[in-house]
Sequence to fold (583 residues):
Amino acid sequence: MNKARQNPLNSAAAHAVLIVYTIIALFPVFVIIVNSFKTRKAIFREPLALPSADSFSLIGYRTVMEQGDFFLYFQNSMIVTVVSLFLVLLFGAMAAFALSEYRFKGNALMGLYLALGIMIPIRIGTVAILEMMVASGLVNTLMALILVYTAQGLPLAVFILSEFMRQVSDDLKNAGRIDGLSEYTIFFRLVLPLVRPAMATVAVFNMIPIWNDLWFPLILAPSEGTKTLTLGSQVFIGQFVTDWNAVLSALSLAILPVLILYVIFSRQLIRGITSGAVK
Amino acid sequence: MTGFRIRWHVLVFLAPAVLVYTAIMIFPLFNTLRLALYSQVDQTTVFVGLQNFKTLFGDPNWSGAFWNALGNNFWFFFIHMVVQNPIGIMLAAILSHPRLRFAALYRSAIFVPTILSFVIVGFAWKLILSPIWGIAPEMLDAIGLKWLYQPWLGKEDYALTTLALISVWQFVGIPMMLIYAALLSIPEEILEAGEIDGITGMAAFWKIKLPLILPSIGIISILTFVGNFNAFDLIYASQGALAGPDFATDILGTFLYRTFFGFQLQIGDPHMGSAIATAMFAIILAGVCLYLFGIQRRMRRYQL
Fold:
């Protein structure tokens, strides 16, 4: 079977390239995490060595826990990400259902209007968004961030979900209608469960940019009580530049939650990207 | 459906998304374009037409910074196009090899940097490249290239390119995944037909696969373009809002931030900020239109 494309030399070369690149990709993360567990002296003397009994130290983590309110930042990031995702999925699925299910005047135009935001970044409107949030008193609230991220996520969500909803069988929905189900029940009970994989894809796509965003937390919610983890670690590291233990520990603490989420969702994410959802 | 009956459920389904999207995204976007036409004179807002743009493009106090940021931004984009996309394509081509072992493992590992925040990436590389810590010089020393070492992020000549390469390191996973998906969707029969004609290995890649994945490369290019022209976080996290050294790494995003939000001695000016945002909008729109009407339409798509 196609021997021409199989030869051991090629295969070894392929693995060599991939291993080198994997090392390049993971090396910085490795260096940061390993050194966060070492004493200051060991960090500088042997940056590439694993922590040993001698050099092991949690001093950095102690500083971080005492000086920065990382638990609060984490909680803020969690609230913002989860609520925004929920709203993106709910509103996005509802709009996608309306666009794919019903024929009404302006349907195509509405689809185009909602799709505009896929290519135009919401950051362009920041000046006016800030003005609006100031006027409505939402500055320095998590609500401001949630609203912005919901608006930011909707265009792609509507686009992807309506593609998937077009594939849901009409017979099923019509059977529901004959049984006297309302349009709302058909949407929530019949259609939503069937597009669950697409919803997961949308969720995973939106999760990373929301969690990692620095721009809007910096501008809309920089107060101590509303800092997200990304902004919190930025500010914390800025203040502790010379305390290498603290900086490395703060970085590791910021890496950890994302890495855990990635391990859980990586299959979903990769399947989402490779299934051609982004076209 | 009969006549002009309003179907309330359609409205109910559409309303939340349309309202939030219009209020938070579309309205502020146009409001920003409008604000660019006003200016603050003695505590009152007055209409000044295109004066802000004249200032931005022509006034020596502003134009230097603007053209600098724009030029830097194009360089930033250029590095992504010539480094990130070829590496991404190469990795995808290797990964898509049939019966390559551990493919899923490599794929997941190479994608890890993409999920990290700019703050982590910026600081991590700043530490690694730092002359104080010495990881970079030591590693270069180990392979006999110590003379190559420079404090790259601190030198005007290298800082922007270094940051662009850091950004490439972070995002190479995205072109890799998209191209990988495109390569997997090429039917086996086509490759086998090529084999029968004696086209294998590299030739098969250049003559069969590459033409088939061109549309995906187009999508990646426009995604990179849009992403680069509203980039901000990485520069801010590693070089600060002043985009040092001496504005060598200033791009439109950091310039916009300093201008409208104010920084240190500079007082925020929402109207000049809006003018910069409008310029960014125009650039992104031009890029997207060029892609949609100029490139995507002309690209040959093969029916598989």
